[in-house]
Amino acid sequence: MRQLQLMAFGEPSDVIQLNTLPEPALGPEEVLVSMEAAPLNPSDFLLVRGVYAVRPPLPFSLGAEGVGRVKALGSKVDTALRGKRVVIVPNYEQGTWSDKVVVPARNIVPVADDTDPAQLAMIGINPATAYLLLHRYVSLMPGDWIGQTAANSAMGQYIIALARLAGVKTLNVVRRPEAAEQVRQFGGDRVVLQGDNLRHDIDEALGGKKLSLVLDFLGGSPAGDLARSLKPGGSIAVYAFQHGWPELSPEFLFNNLNLHGFWLGNWLRNAPRIEIQELYQKLADLVADGSLSAVVENVYPLDQFKEAIDRSLKSNRNGKVLLKLGAD
Ligand SMILES: NC(=O)c1ccc[n+]([C@@H]2O[C@H](COP(=O)([O-])OP(=O)(O)OC[C@H]3O[C@@H](n4cnc5c(N)ncnc54)[C@H](OP(=O)(O)O)[C@@H]3O)[C@@H](O)[C@H]2O)c1
């Protein structure tokens, strides 16, 4: 079977190799999944560069999430799973950028057969993170407002969709006018552009209302400007720090604001298995009924992985880049 493997930590275009490996033997509690699709995520490239929370021994099979079909079962696995389409729960135990993977049965969640596999392939990391960020820090009520940076990202799209389902309004910051238009089409309630006028534009967009929650992965002044508009006791949840931490003003103290860090890996490691299964089933149902999706820019076959990586690392993309894998 063919697998994209990391041969050394470094620049993604230099250190990822497509290798052909023998199919591993199936343990009693494992399944063989013939992969259909898997996304390339920013966290994959942090891992490749050796600056992620996970630094595995090499060579390492890449790809943390994806979707495929169960082709073979270990002796102790429920036979009802044979042939089922399944989402791989994100982890760094097996690489999903592969034609086939052997996975412990506890790391798969059966999903609908008639749903777009590209959308299902992406539910493991971003939608789960968006859902947890929206639910764990403040108790949001319909009509409440949240703010977010880089709102045209896949994360931003899922946050908007899940907020809308809960009746929560979104104030969205982007850095490009074209991205602002895209975010309006996603259903963002207000969209403002990064830049010198951001603080003023946030105030104008909110018209006197206050935010309950700010979700940020950029850091710096955009997140700081949003944080100034939080209600007393409101929360800032940081889920990556592209440019460091949010630039916080004295309001952080005077308004008793809360700053939280979130990494999905910790939740996946600590949450009960049933809670994890239930969340992925709920997200897969939302994908199936069309309420949850992210724009896909392009899907590349495995042997065009270099193009997929190059495109994925570019700014100003119109959506996610995925690998189409060799399901048979
Ligand atoms: N903590 C966790 O557990 C967790 C879970 C999921 C994701 N994440 C993190 O969330 C982030 C987003 O992931 P994603 O898959 O949604 O990414 P994505 O779809 O690839 O989007 C990347 C976004 O970043 C924006 N961006 C990049 N550099 C920027 C800059 N200098 N200033 C302003 N905007 C900038 C891009 O804007 P343009 O379109 O204008 O280029 C785009 O909106 C990643 O850092 C990822 O690692 C963390």
By CATH, the superfamily of the largest domain comes out as: Medium-chain alcohol dehydrogenases, catalytic domain
Roughly what is the average pLDDT, rounded to an integer?
Answer: 96
Stated plainly, the CATH topology of the largest domain is called: Quinone Oxidoreductase, Chain A, domain 1
The CATH architecture of the largest domain is Alpha-Beta Complex
Write down the domain tally.
Answer: 2
Output the radius of gyration.
Answer: 20 Å
Sheet with the most strands, sense and barrel status: 7 strands, mixed
**DSSP strand count:** 16
Fraction of residues in H or I helices: 25-40%
Strand content: 25-35%
Distance between the termini: 12 Å
Number of helices: 12
H/E element order: EHEEHEEEEEHHEHEHEHEHEHEHHEHE
User: What ions, cofactors and ligands are bound?
Assistant: NADP nicotinamide-adenine-dinucleotide phosphate
Molecular shape: globular
Structural class assignment: alpha/beta
Characterization of this structure:
Strand 9 (145-148), helix 5 (154-165) and strand 10 (169-174) form a beta-alpha-beta unit. The longest helix is centred in the C-terminal third of the chain and has 16 residues, at 273-288. Helix 4 (126-136) crosses helix 5 (154-165). With 328 residues, the protein is an alpha/beta fold. The model has no long low-confidence stretch (mean pLDDT 96). The protein contains 12 helices and 16 strands. It has helices spanning 12-15, 42-48, 117-121, 126-136, 154-165, 177-186, 198-206, 220-227, 251-254, 264-270, 273-288, 305-312; strands at 2-6, 16-20, 30-39, 60-61, 66-73, 85-88, 100-104, 108-110, 145-148, 169-174, 190-193, 211-216, 230-238, 258-261, 296-301, 320-324. 31% of the residues lie in helices and 26% in strands. It has 2 domains: 2-122 and 272-324, Medium-chain alcohol dehydrogenases, catalytic domain (Quinone Oxidoreductase, Chain A, domain 1, Alpha-Beta Complex); 133-262, Rossmann fold (3-Layer(aba) Sandwich), CATH 3.40.50. It is globular, with a radius of gyration of 20 Å. NADP nicotinamide-adenine-dinucleotide phosphate (NAP) binds at residues 41-43, 125-126, 129, 150, 152-155, 175-176, 179, 217-218, 239-240, 242, 262-264, 315-317, 320.
